[in-house]
Amino acid sequence: MILVTGGAGFIGSNFVLDWLAQSDEPVLNLDALTYAGNLANLASLQGNSRHVFVHGDIGDRALVDQLLSTHQPRAIVHFAAESHVDRSIHGPGAFMKTNVEGTFNLLEAARAYWGTLQGEARANFRFHHVSTDEVYGSLKPTDPPFAETNPYEPNSPYSASKAASDHLVRAWHHTYGLPVLTTNCSNNYGPYHFPEKLIPLMIVNALAGRPLPVYGDGQQIRDWLYVKDHCSGIRAVLAGGRLGETYNIGGWNEMANIDIVKTVCKLLDELRPDPAGPYARLITYVTDRPGHDRRYAIDARKIERELGWRPAETFETGIRKTVQWYLNHAEWVAQVQSGAYKEWVAANYQAR
Fold first, then answer.
1. Is 97 exposed, middle or buried (0-12, 13-18, 19+ CB in 10 A)?
2. How much is the average pLDDT of 96-106?
3. Does the annotation count 134 as an active-site position?
4. What is the CATH number of domain 2-189+225-253+294-314?
5. Cβ atoms of 309 and 233 closer than 8 Å
6. What is the biggest distance separating any 2 CA atoms in the chain, rounded to whole angstroms?
7. How buried is residue 344: exposed, middle or buried, by Cβ count under 10 Å (0-12/13-18/19+)?
8. Residue 285 catalytic?
9. What pLDDT sits at residue 345?
10. 3-state secondary structure of 214
11. Is the pLDDT of residue 347 over 80?
């Protein structure tokens, strides 16, 4: 069995679904079900004995200790995190609590549990920490992409909290010998993405005829990674990664935000045309967010060189699958757009 934290969130739920589709090994899924955690993401696993869901917080040491002792997982795959830059600007405290204190608590529980293991079980145990490229800061237009050796230069409360968690994981390996792996991914997109992030927000707003808010000049560049490719990259690192090492997982797809938005609009024009006219008419430039990083890009050659991993999807194939998924799952979208979601959108975008 493996323990997955945050397995009801966007990336975590995709990972759990993919894992159980490709493996007989059960998953113990621990999630606090905050606003972005959604059991509807896992509805297809209802009644599946290989999926054990526990509603709980990684900060609850007694619970984590009990789960490790009872279920004896061979690995922990740690997704649980607050992950939205805008939310971290409005309220950084939750990011420090979950991403820093929560990771510390999980590391200590893992260290205590690992200390009880013997022989093969001890040798094979892994703590896999899932992080982000945002810890590396911002790139200039001509800078090479982020490599695993880049210095950390986080620029938002979110990225600072993830950088702190990365450092904790590294320290627990070097100080205590805990067998850790770290992956830093680029911007994910795909099914079950909570519609506060760029791509799902654009799809959902366009279908509702609402403005498509683009920060600043829209020329912020990101590397885009289809979430199922990210999941396969994590599986590759968990299976064969060198202990204590960091692996960058990227999609080799650098694109400006405005080009992403226009691509989504064109796909919607094709797949769900609006009688009122092209969706691009809804693009609205709004005040940029504070400290907005200009460019991220991932150099994913290390994971390819050592583990033979490359993304299966191009941006063109991945974004088409994503838009079609949202068109096919209007019920899921309606469910997650609760009053709390509407209040957040109003708080973040109205003043802009």
1. middle
2. 97
3. yes
4. 3.40.50.720
5. yes
6. 67
7. middle
8. no
9. 58
10. strand
11. no
- CA distance to 1, 17, 76, 274, 343, per residue, from 50 (Å): 9, 11, 16, 43, 37
**3-state helix vs strand vs coil in the chain, percent to 5:** 50, 15, 35
Amino acid at 241: G
> Looking up tokens 């990771």, which residue turns up?
103
Tell me if 26 sits within 8 A of 53, measured CB to CB: no
CB atoms under 10 Å from CB of 285, counted, come to 15
Q: H or E element: which one contains 114?
A: helix 103-116
Q: Residues with Cβ < 8 Å from 240, sequence gap 6 or more?
A: 306, 307
E-strand spans in 153-220? Answer: 180-185, 187-189, 212-215
- Active-site pick, 134, 166, 293, 299: 134
Describe the strand order of the beta sheet including 180-185 as a list of residue ranges: 51-55, 27-31, 2-5, 75-78, 126-132, 180-185, 246-249
Model-level pTM? Answer: 0.94
CA–CA distance, 22 with 33 (Å, rounded to integer): 25
Q: Read off φ and ψ for residue 179, nearest 5 degrees.
A: -75, 95
Question: Which one of the listed residues 31, 82, 133, 254 is annotated catalytic?
Answer: 133
How far apart are the C-alpha atoms of 232 and 303, rounded to whole Å?
A: 11
Task: State both tokens at 344.
Answer: 């957040």
Cα atoms in the Cβ-side hemisphere of radius 13 Å centred on 316: 0
Q: What is the mean pLDDT of residues 245-270?
A: 97
- Kindly give, in sequence order, each residue whose CB lies less than 8 Å from that of residue 211, ignoring residues fewer than 6 positions away: 205, 282, 283, 284
158 is catalytic: yes
- Upper half-sphere CA count for residue 168 (Cβ side, 13 Å): 24
